[in-house]
Amino acid sequence: RNPVDMLGEVFKAVSSGGPVSLPCTMYEPLSVLQRTVEMFEFRSCLDKALEYKDPLNRLAFIAAFGTSSLAYSTGRFKTNFNPILGETFEFVDSRSEVMHVFAEQISHHPPLTALFAETKKWKLFLNSNAGETKTSGNGVILDTKAKIYLQFSDSDDKYVISTPVTKIHNLLIGSPWLEHYGELEVKNLKTGDYAIVKFKQAGLFDGVQKKIGGFVYNKDEKKCIKLAGDWTSSLKGHWGVDTADVKNKESVTLWQTEEKEFSGPYKLSEFSTSLTTYDDSALPTDSRRRPDSRHLLANETTKATAWKRVAENKQRAEEKTRNDAWTAKTGKKPETDIDAGWVPVWFQKGKDHKDQDFWEFKTENSYWAQRDQCLKDNKNPFEELKAASVVGFAADFPAYVNYQDAFTQEYKQLDGKDEGNTMLLGVPSDAKETASCMEGNPKHHDENGVKSAEEKGAPKQHVSRDKKKDKKDKKDKKDKGAK
C-alpha cells in the first residue's frame, strides 16, 4: 500500500483524541484465535513422532513441529484482530487422524488465549498472551510468552514447548519484512531430556536470517542429535548417538514444506483459508462470525473498520461497567478481567508444572461432548450451547444486527462510500467462495446472499448520458474542422 495513505490513516486514528483504533487495511481477516490454530498446518510431525519409541527421537520431531508453525508466515505483514473477551474458535481437521481444536479468549486485560487440541494419539494445551504486541519504531514485536504442553496417549511423558519472538520491520515505511529470533525449546518433564532450536536475529545490515540450528540433549546435557534447517522450509536431524530407532551418523528429514506460491492479498495457505469457513452450528461467539472480519474478507474495508470500532466501543463500555461494579463492591480497582468477575465458559483455572495458573479445557461435559449430543438429538449447537454469560455482550456477534445505528455513525466518520447494503454476519460458507474472496475478487452483496460482480451482472463501465453527448459533440467539431 501507499505508505502516505497508511500513515494518514494511522495519524487520523491517533489524532482523534479517543482510544486508537487502527484501520482494517492493516489487518488480515483472521483473529488471533484463528492465527494460533495455524500452528497445526504440519501436525503430521506429531504423528511421525509416534512412529519412534526413543524419547530423544520424539523430541526431534516435536522441535520440528514447533518450527513448522512459522513456515508460512513469510510475506504476511498484516496483523490479526484482537479477540473480543469471550470470543471462541472451533475447528475439526480431518486431513488424517481427526483433530478437534477449541480456543477461547479468557481475558482481554491482560490478553490471554486458551486453546485445547486433541486426536486419539495426543493432546495439546496452550495458554498465550498472543493479543499483546509492542511497537518498535517502524515495526511491531510479538512475544506471546506461550505455554504449550503436549502429551502422547501411549506414554506418560509430558512435554513443554516455548516459542521464539516475532518482529515485523518497515510496517509503515519501506519494504516490510519479517523475522523470528530467540529460541524454541522443548523439554520432556519426565526424563529431563530437551531440545533447543536457535533463531538468529538480523543484524543492522544483514536482513532476515532464515537458517536455524540446535541440538537434542539428554538429561546429562550431552548433544545427541544435531538440528539444522531453514524456518521457511525444513528441518533435518543428524544423529550423533545410537538410539532405539536411528543409528549414529544417520540423518532424517524431520519436516519439509511443499514449494507453493500463495496468491491473493493475504498470502494464506489452503489450510489457513479453511479456517475462515464454517456452518450454521458454530457458536455465536465464533471468530468467523465477526462482522469486521467478514466484511474484510469480502474486501469491504471501510465497513470492516466501522464494525471493528463498534465492537471495540461496546467491549470498552462493558469493561467499564464491570470494573466500576467491582470497585464499588470491594473498594479496589481490578487488575484483570477475571478479578472483575468475568468467568470463562469452556476453560477452568488449573496449575502448570511450576504450580502457576494455567487455564485448562473443561473435559467433564466438554464443549465437544455437548456438541455431539446436540447433533445426535437433531438440535443446533448454535442455539443449544449459547452461553448465557455472553448473550448480548460484545462477543455475541449475531446480536450486532441491533447495532446498526452505531455502525452508521462510525461509517460516516470514516467517509464511507457505498460498498453494498447487507451486513455480513456469516458466509462465504464454502471454501470455494472464500478462496475467491482471498484472491481479491470484488463481491456484491444483497439480501439474497453473496454474488460475484459477474453473477450480479455488474456493468464493466458506466458512462453517463451527458458524457456520451460530450464525446459526440467533440467528434462533430473534429470532423467539421477536418473538412
Q: Find the count of extended strands (DSSP E, 2+ residues).
A: 21
What distance lies between the first and last C-alpha atoms, to the nearest angstrom?
50 Å
Strand residue percentage: 25-35%
Compute the average pLDDT.
Answer: 83
Helix content: 25-40%
Q: Give the overall shape.
A: globular
- Biggest sheet: strands, sense, closure? 15 strands, antiparallel
Structural class designation: alpha+beta
User: pLDDT below 50 for ≥5 consecutive residues: which ranges?
Assistant: 426-472
Give the helix tally: 13
Q: How large is the radius of gyration? A: 25 Å
Write up what this structure looks like.
- The chain has 483 residues and is of the alpha+beta class.
- It has helices at residues 3-14, 32-37, 44-49, 55-68, 270-274, 291-297, 301-330, 367-376, 381-384, 404-413, 431-438, 453-456, 465-482, and strands spanning 27-31, 79-81, 88-93, 99-107, 112-118, 122-128, 134-136, 139-142, 147-152, 158-162, 165-169, 177-188, 194-199, 211-217, 223-230, 234-239, 251-256, 347-351, 357-361, 443-446, 449-452.
- It has a 15-stranded antiparallel sheet that branches.
- Helix 7 packs across helix 10.
- The protein is globular.
- The two termini are 50 Å apart.
